[in-house]
Design brief:
CATH superfamily of the largest domain: Probable tRNA modification gtpase trme, domain 1
Strand content: 35-45%
Order of helices and strands: EEHEEEHEEHEEEH
Largest sheet: 5 strands, antiparallel
Structural class: alpha+beta
Shape: elongated
């Protein structure tokens, strides 16, 4: 069966792993972050920067690649207080967009999550499996975005090509 989808492998994006309470992280980074999401497994966005609440006292900050150096200078990961951790992890992930009318059908092949909008709303983000690999799954305009450990990027691209052939 052929699917009406567009599969795009994205170039590198800026990603920072933040650990610590929202108060402690917020006090350190001040106004450069969007508001902290209130509910786990959701994200907020401001000025092209997304803040994802992915676990207890665990956040991912995501932005376009051209913002990476500016964010690193503002986040100062090597100088942060002992009660928080900030690590640039941009080079560890490969992102894919699965968009189009049949995006949910392709995602059903690749991912065990119930991605219906009533269960996985537009601001949802979570770790799950994607073709059996640990993956960060979010919604994006017209479909979904998945990020896997970068060494599996070529394999996932092949799996997506086979699933949509």
């Amino acid at each position: 069966m052929s699917y009406d989808v567009q599969i795009d492998r994205l170039g590198r994006v800026a990603v920072f792993d933040l650990k610590g309470t929202a108060d402690a992280v917020g006090a350190w980074v001040k106004d450069i972050l969007p508001a902290f999401p209130v509910r786990p497994n959701t994200r907020t966005e401001k000025n092209g920067v997304a803040l994802c609440y992915i676990g207890r006292n665990h956040w991912l900050l995501r932005a376009a690649r051209d913002a990476e150096e500016r964010l690193e200078q503002r986040l100062k990961p090597t100088n942060c207080p002992a009660d928080i951790s900030i690590v640039r992890v941009s080079d560890t992930l490969t992102f894919f967009h699965v968009t189009g009318p049949d995006a949910a059908d392709v995602m059903a092949i690749a991912c065990p999550l119930d991605l219906h909008e009533t269960v996985f709303p537009p601001d949802a983000v979570t770790y799950s499996e994607f073709f059996g690999l640990k993956a960060l799954v979010t919604r994006c305009e017209g479909g979904f975005e998945c990020a896997v450990e970068q060494s599996f990027g070529d394999m996932v691209a092949d799996y997506l090509a086979r699933a949509t052939a």
